[in-house]
Amino acid sequence: MPGPSLTRRTAVVSAVGSALTSPLVLAGCDIDPPRSTDGSPASPPPPEDAELVASVVAELVRAAAVLEAATLAVPGLTPRLAPVADAHAAHLDLLVGAVADTDVPTSAPPSLPPDRVRTLAAVVRSERRLQREVRQACVTAASGDLARVLASVAASTAQHGASLARDPGGTTAAVAP
Amino acid sequence: MSVLDALQATLAEEHAALYYYGVLGARTSQSASPALYDAVTAAYRRHRARRDQLRLMVRDAGGEPVAAAVAYELDGPLVRAAQVQRTAARLEIAGAEVLLALVAQSSGDVREWALSEATWSAVWQLELGGSAQTWPGAPELD
Prior knowledge:
The complex is a heterodimer. Chain A is mainly α.
């Protein structure tokens, strides 16, 4: 790929990244227990973070229910909302897997009008609420590993929210049945 | 890695990013590609403020801020607007990764700042032709 070499940058990222992913390095850390090596993001967060993870899980479930209600109310929005729902499903999987015995709550889907603009606005509001909650959880997490995962969830949510808000008319989804 | 080490690593990256953005700005025509010019200019300003803030935070943490290199390697053509845009997007992708490392190594105000900046870099990728990802800044989770 053309462009300036990012090798130096990449090297630094790798150096920083390896400090977060290597059990050997983390063994010297008194906050985070050694993480698993199965590609799972986070070592189990310390007990004091369990409640925080549960609150983020509940918030992700709530946001997913809003997305589901939105696609039911306006099926034409499905192509636009599916990537958001997929991302949150991945976020949820990872967080639920990070804490043993995490209960995945259910959330009653809200009632949304069969109106494209209003429903999309409701989704954008819901995503912003989710981002605020995840952000707060990131700042207060005791585990640095968990904070990093939550920061990525917050950044992803911000990206998806911005992407939806950029084109409120939803022209990109006009081809949907 | 201490908070200070992570701050210094982030600062070193910002020095490089500012250098690259300076080059990208010079290679972007305000009249021919005004949207890209605006996106690159805004990013340059953001990264300049980020560098200044990092210098302050390094000092607050008891360190001497690392200096910028005299120059950074440019190994590809930056002639077309698409090349500039792609390079700028890669800078933001890499920036989000470095900032997320700082999130992990810090707490309190520093972590909150790093989170805000990582989120900005993630969202700004959309202005540079990128699309939303599941794990911005943490690609190994994909």
